[in-house]
From TrEMBL:
Cofactor(s) named in the record: pyridoxal 5'-phosphate
Keyword Transferase part of the UniProt annotation: yes
GO molecular function, one term: transaminase activity
Family indicated by similarity: Belongs to the group II decarboxylase family. Sphingosine-1-phosphate lyase subfamily.
Protein name as annotated: Aminotransferase class V-fold PLP-dependent enzyme
Keyword terms of this UniProt record: Aminotransferase, Lyase, Pyridoxal phosphate, Transferase
Species: Streptomyces thermolineatus
């Protein structure tokens, strides 16, 4: 294929994807809406695409770039001269490393060999992934049913001699609210336990928002809070860098070393891995460095102020739409919208919005949190709030007329008796067919019926079936 043919094929494939610019995709992507930023990032990435961060002695420029990026994050988020950090591929890797570091630290300094991880039920799934990968028991703590914030006294009650790390979110992804970091960190410190703040979404945004003129109150959350020992912040969110850019900050280099892997006991070269990756392209690091330089502190502060104002307008406007309510007053730039009318199903509203070019992320009911729609407000959304609210009101009217999706009670009753661990391929295939998932992994144009079934299933059964859905989508060698 020629270069032009290859690029035309890629562009044709992209036509079926959600748009990454323009502010109509309100999850997964972050758009600054600034001219030239993407082009600069692409050129910086290309300049470093072949540079391998595996060996920093062979490519010392990688160390220079990482020191500057991590230093910028530390200066913004309460760091000091002792603060250490690592550039990672994203929020999940930053959270994984925080848990791994805490596990190893507790094993080596406290002799903990059956480690526990204490976290709110609202904490990101990345921490459960970390517990699964690194052999920790995840101990979940309920949250206040009105505010969806964890209570420090509940965290304190859950800490045991086996606890190696306590987690809090700023904000939680599902509801956009900040956990009370000072109280949680104090509870952890009182027991000699490390405390991690997941500020992957909120760190860069809130850190700059508090620098704005007439800044609104911003909750305490960073490394300056006593007892906070690590913090994760993504640059490919409100830093508006290309994907693959996050930072894990730790209180000092001594703590950081517990998360690094070093190996000399083989015939090859000495290995030191600061991240979960071995080989890692320096392209995302260079792109992040370039965008941080391009936008600068003043630029990020102005973007954060615009996002804050737009978030408030959105939350207030949603409250005026008949049939909708905001689940919790947002502390950051995430808004969760539920229904206060049984005739209006949030999943049907999401379908109606998507058919008209908007993506609002459906979130099934769980642990006292009702079914709702997640909306991430980025700088590119700020000029579209009125249009979004008008479209949302129209979608609610159509959803009310359509009614909620019907779920067969007999199906749910039968599913409740299934053992997820004993579910064979044939039973899984049958369950997926009943949920409306095709043999080829294809989903119906409207996802509300599938989501309604998923929501009604026991969580462990849903977790058994979800890989089956995704597995059907990946068929190597097929179109």
């Amino acid at each position: 294929m020629s270069d032009d043919e290859i690029l035309r094929s890629l562009h044709a494939l992209r036509e079926g994807d959600l748009p990454v610019h323009g502010g109509r995709t309100m999850a997964y992507v972050y758009d600054a809406g600034l001219d030239g930023v993407d082009e600069l990032a692409a050129r910086a990435h290309a300049a470093y695409a072949g540079v391998n961060g595996l060996d920093m002695t062979a490519f010392p420029s990688v160390v220079h770039l990482e020191n500057e990026v991590v230093g910028r994050a530390a200066a913004l988020l309460g760091g000091n001269a002792a603060t250490a950090g690592t550039f990672t591929s994203g929020g999940t890797e930053s959270c994984l490393l925080a848990v791994l570091t805490a596990r190893n630290h507790a094993r080596r300094t406290r002799g903990v060999h059956r480690p526990e991880l204490v976290l709110p039920v609202t904490a990101h799934a990345a921490f459960h992934k970390a517990a699964d990968l690194f052999g920790l028991e995840a101990v979940t703590v309920g949250v206040d049913p009105q505010t969806f914030r964890v209570r420090p006294e509940d965290v304190a009650a859950a800490i045991t001699d086996r606890t190696v790390l306590v987690v809090c979110s700023v904000p939680s992804y599902a509801h956009g609210v900040a956990d009370p970091v000072a109280g949680v960190a104090a509870a952890a410190a009182a027991r000699g336990v490390l405390c991690h703040v997941d500020a992957c979404i909120g760190g860069w945004y809130l850190g700059h928002l508090r620098l704005a003129r007439n800044a609104p109150p911003v909750p305490e959350f960073d490394l300056s809070v006593p007892g906070v020992t690590s913090l994760s912040v993504d640059l490919h969110k409100y830093g508006y860098t290309p994907k693959g850019a996050s930072v894990l900050l730790l209180r000092d280099a001594e703590l950081r070393r517990h998360g690094w892997f070093a190996h000399r006991s083989w015939p090859g070269y000495p290995v030191v891995n600061p991240t979960l990756q071995g080989t890692r392209s320096a392209g995302p690091l260079a792109a992040a460095w370039a965008v941080l330089r391009r936008i600068g502190t003043d630029g990020y502060t102005e973007l954060s102020a615009r996002v804050h104002a737009a978030t408030r307008r959105l939350a207030d406007g949603v409250g005026a739409v008949d049939g909708l309510r905001v689940l919790a007053d947002p502390d950051a730039s995430l808004v969760a919208v539920a229904s206060d009318d049984p005739a209006v199903d949030p999943f049907v509203v999401a379908d109606e919005m998507r058919l008209r070019g908007w993506y609002l992320q459906p979130q099934p009911a769980f642990a006292g949190s009702p079914a709702n729609l997640h909306m991430t407000v980025t700088a590119a959304v700020t000029g579209r709030i009125d249009r979004l609210l008008a479209e949302l009101a129209d979608a609610v009217r159509r959803a009310r007329a359509a009614g909620p999706p019907a779920v067969d009670p007999a199906l749910i009753e039968a599913a409740a008796g299934l053992d997820p661990d004993a579910l064979g391929p044939e039973e899984a295939a049958l369950a997926l067919r009943l949920a409306g998932v095709g043999e080829d992994g294809g989903l119906p144009e409207r996802s509300a019926p599938v989501l309604a079934v998923l929501q009604a299933l026991p969580p462990r059964l849903a977790e058994r079936l979800l890989p089956e859905v995704v597995g059907r989508m990946y068929r190597p060698g097929r179109p």
